[in-house]
Design goal:
The chain has 407 residues and is of the alpha/beta class. It contains 13 helices and 15 strands. The chain has two domains: 110 residues, Urease, subunit C, domain 1, CATH 2.30.40; 267 residues, Metal-dependent hydrolases (TIM Barrel), CATH 3.20.20.140. Helix 5 crosses helix 6 and helix 10 packs across helix 11.
């Protein structure tokens, strides 16, 4: 980052701004019109001496949070911010030097990361290009070393791969125990009901992905609720993977549909989780790496995820909470997720009413990351046409197993 960029960012952060005439999402609905002050990177409460920006009745959201991505370079942080995602939770990236280079970037999405995820030799994830073989977990005895190595590298939480083949139950148990001993949250990848059961037995804090093999039943969701487990279903990824598996199976069978993994299982599982009261967070599994069966686009895909969560039974308010206040709460990010004095000034100004039509979240006017305005559209190939591709219509208008899995 250039010295001139640093100076301009410091100037932007020191400027006091008052956004007037904004309808503010407060986690339950829209209130206002109201004035929101940006001062020193946080939300202030005194507009005296501020530069006035008239929002003209537009909607102001807390910066969106994507609870499952994979990062490779700075362009992903820019692209996320282009679409109003001001915080992103990376669920597997390496080497540590690359992850560190993406932290605390001014005017872009802020990150937290698991670093290298825990798996064993011979698992599907062990074959991902570039996975460091020296970091394979060597059974339960290797769990403590894996966790301390990740903590030494700066991991914010520990990502586990629950998979068959993959870490056995005793190894998952040991990984969770070691993580909790160090005060770290555990997030488990699980795309089948068998893998999800293993993760629950191990006592993980969060499960990412919704199963493609069959719908979760009421007894399983009740168990998840009782254990305090949080779910990041990544419906965008599950839909993409399921459709690719179905297309490949149809080609092999001469166009005759074959039984197998289905998106409906994932969607209906989210509906059951929602009915049970299990906390649901919005995450996409956005990625651009090799060896992945489907690649949701960073930033853009979170808006699709909100739409899919609503199709699965969440209300528009619940979907917005799943991408703002809830991930902030469950990942311990107490400085963000809501718009109130003293919180980080991560803000997204949009046209329309996302409570009436969630697609309004795509109609982005302006974005602030910790009080620094992000210039929307700075990434090559990202245009206003792409951001507004699902512009709300006016009222009244109408052979794969666990090796073909998201990460």
């Amino acid at each position: 980052m250039s010295d001139s960029h640093d100076r301009s960012a410091r100037t932007a952060r020191s400027e006091k701004i008052a956004l007037t005439n904004a309808r503010v999402f407060d986690g339950r609905g829209l209130r206002g019109p109201a004035t929101v002050v940006i001062e020193g990177g946080i939300v202030g409460n005194d507009s005296a001496g501020a530069r006035i920006i008239d929002a003209g009745g537009a909607t102001l959201l807390p910066g969106l949070i994507d609870a499952h991505v994979h990062l490779l370079h700075e362009g992903h942080l820019q692209q996320l911010a282009d679409f109003g995602v001001t915080t992103t939770l990376d669920m597997g990236a390496w080497p540590p030097s690359m992850v560190d280079s993406l932290r605390n970037r001014t005017g872009m999405a802020d990150i937290r990361s698991a670093g290298i995820p825990a798996t064993t030799a011979g698992s599907a994830h062990s074959h991902l290009p570039g996975y460091p073989a020296e970091e394979f977990v060597d059974g339960p005895a290797g769990a403590a070393r894996f966790v301390t190595d990740r903590i030494a590298e700066g991991a914010d939480y520990i990502k586990l791969i629950a998979d068959v083949p993959g870490p056995d139950q005793e190894t998952l148990d040991a990984l969770v125990a070691a993580s909790h001993q160090h005060g770290k949250l555990t997030v488990a990848h699980a795309v089948s009901t068998a893998a999800l059961d293993m993760a629950l037995r191990a006592g993980v804090d969060m499960i990412t992905h919704a199963p493609l093999d069959r719908r979760l039943d009421a007894s399983t969701t009740a168990r998840m609720l009782a254990q305090g487990c949080v779910v990041v279903p990544t419906l965008t990824m599950m839909k993409g993977v399921a459709h690719r598996i179905a297309a490949a199976a149809a080609r092999q069978s001469g166009g005759v549909p074959a039984a197998g993994p289905s998106y409906e299982s994932a969607r209906d599982s989210v509906a059951e989780l929602h009915r049970a009261g299990v906390p649901i967070l919005a995450g996409t599994d956005a990625n651009a790496g090799p060896g992945i069966p489907f690649s949701p686009r960073h930033g853009e895909s979170l808006h699709e995820e909100l739409e899919l969560l609503i199709e699965a039974g969440l209300s528009t308010v619940e979907a917005l909470r799943a991408a703002t206040v809830l991930p902030a709460q469950h990942f311990g990010l107490r400085d963000r997720g809501v718009i109130e004095p003293g919180r980080r000034a991560d803000l997204v100004l949009i046209d329309g009413d996302p409570i009436a039509d969630i697609r309004a979240t795509r109609l982005i006017r302006r974005v602030w990351c910790a009080g620094v305005e992000h210039v929307v559209g700075t990434v090559v190939g990202i245009s206003a046409e792409v951001r507004g591709s699902a512009r709300p219509r006016v009222a009244g208008s109408g052979p794969h197993g666990d090796d073909a899995v998201p990460s």
